[in-house]
Structure formats: C-alpha cells, structure tokens
C-alpha cells in the first residue's frame, strides 16, 4: 500500500495544522488495534466498528473516545502547529526528513496501561533515552516551521495550570510538555473526570484485554509520521511516514 504524501502537487492548499506523531505501520496489528479502538483509521479515513465492552453501551464508548479519535491513533512527538507564513509544504517535508535522521533508532518500546491524569493511555514501561532523543529532535527540527502561538492560544494552553518550567517550555517551543517535560503516551480515551468508578473499571479491563498483544510484546519505534488537520476542528489524517535512519556520512 502506497502511503500518501501531502507535499505532492495534487494538493491545492495547505492544511490548518500539522503534527509529528509516532504511529505504527499502517498494515500492522498495532495500528489496527488502536484505530479500531478509537473507531477511525487516520490512514484510510474510514470509520471503523469499535470493540464491544461489557457494561458500556456503544454510544457511551464512542463518546468516551471522541477526543482521541479526532487526532487518530498516535503518540505526540511534536504537538499540532500552524505553518509559518514563509514555510512551504516542501520545506516542512524536508524538516520531517531531517528529524528522522537520527542514530538512536529504530528501537523497541515496552508498554503498560496507565491512568494518565484523567484519561487512559499506553505508556512506556520504563524510561527510554532513545525515545527522549527522538522527541527532542522532532521539536527542534520542526519548531522553525511553526507559526508563533497567538495570545488566545497561549491562554488556552495555560488553562490547566502550568509549572514555571512548563511555562518556560511553552514560551520557547510552543508547547509545555516537551524536552524534560515530555511524556510519551498512546491515548485511549478522552477525559474520565466525570466518569463513574464502574465505567472506568470496565474501560481498564477492556483495554487490558484488547491491547494484550502490545502489552505483551511492545512496539517498534521506527518512524516519525506526519499528520495534518485540514480545517479547524476537523479530523487529523496520516500524510507521510519517515523511517528513522542514521545521520548521513560526511
């Protein structure tokens, strides 16, 4: 299956936002499990039938996964950003290519299921230095392509409350959870803050069962994937996958 590239001449206009994500290969079990859990494949654009969960009706499960479904199955490496006015799609594509030139990968990552704040996610079972290097490189290489945040967007990102360190990172990199504050997570639900204990327990049990292959065997971190959001509030879609590769020899 050929993976699409947004930078090809068939594209008439630039999308609203772009992001650098980790996403498993589009023909892998890891991609299939995550996309079916969320109910949408960001590669094909197709709506998918979600798994049935005991004691949670389909409508409720669809609602509880609404937020991550918009973004597609992924873990964030460089958070969504608008393109700077002087940056073309070709220049952005070149920045993704540069970000993927890194000596630490590909590498394997073991996963566990966790309650992250008020949502469920798959997270690393233990700290990973190569993962941190990869995330830092994505931020550094792609940040020059990003439009500086507006005051309203800065206010929105501060709404949940930031530490002094996170505020500094927000000012420098346009996102408060990067560099030393980076935490890799493959998001499974939206906010569960107002969800009762029985429903949370059912979600946790279902996720443990559904994602057992990933919890048992982990995932290969072998690429950076470019996602784009065509219009504000729209679904993110898969654009192009950049395999991790060593720095070119001098």
Give the overall form.
Answer: globular
Largest sheet composition: 4 strands, antiparallel
What class do helices, strands and sheet pairing give? alpha+beta
Order of helices and strands: EHHHEHEEEHHHEHHEEE
* Rg computed from alpha carbons, rounded to a whole number of angstroms: 18 Å
Terminal Cα span:
33 Å
Q: How many DSSP E strands?
A: 9
CATH fold title: Cyclic Phosphodiesterase, Chain: A
Q: Judging by the overall fold, what is the CATH architecture?
A: Alpha-Beta Complex
In terms of DSSP E residues, the strand content is: 15-25%
Number of domains: 1
Mean pLDDT: 90
Structural commentary:
This protein is an alpha+beta fold and 250 residues long. It has a single domain, classed as Cyclic phosphodiesterase (Cyclic Phosphodiesterase, Chain: A, Alpha-Beta Complex). The protein contains nine helices and nine strands. It has a four-stranded antiparallel β-sheet with strand order 2-1-8-9. A three-stranded antiparallel β-sheet has the order 4-5-6. Helix 4 packs antiparallel against helix 5.
Record the SSE blueprint.
Blueprint: E1 17-22, H1 29-38, H2 58-64, H3 66-71, E2 75-81, H4 89-99, E3 107-109, E4 111-116, E5 119-124, H5 129-142, H6 151-158, H7 164-173, E6 186-187, H8 197-210, H9 212-217, E7 219-221, E8 223-229, E9 236-243
Antiparallel strand pairs: 1-2, 1-8, 3-7, 4-5, 5-6, 8-9
Helix pairs in contact: 4-5
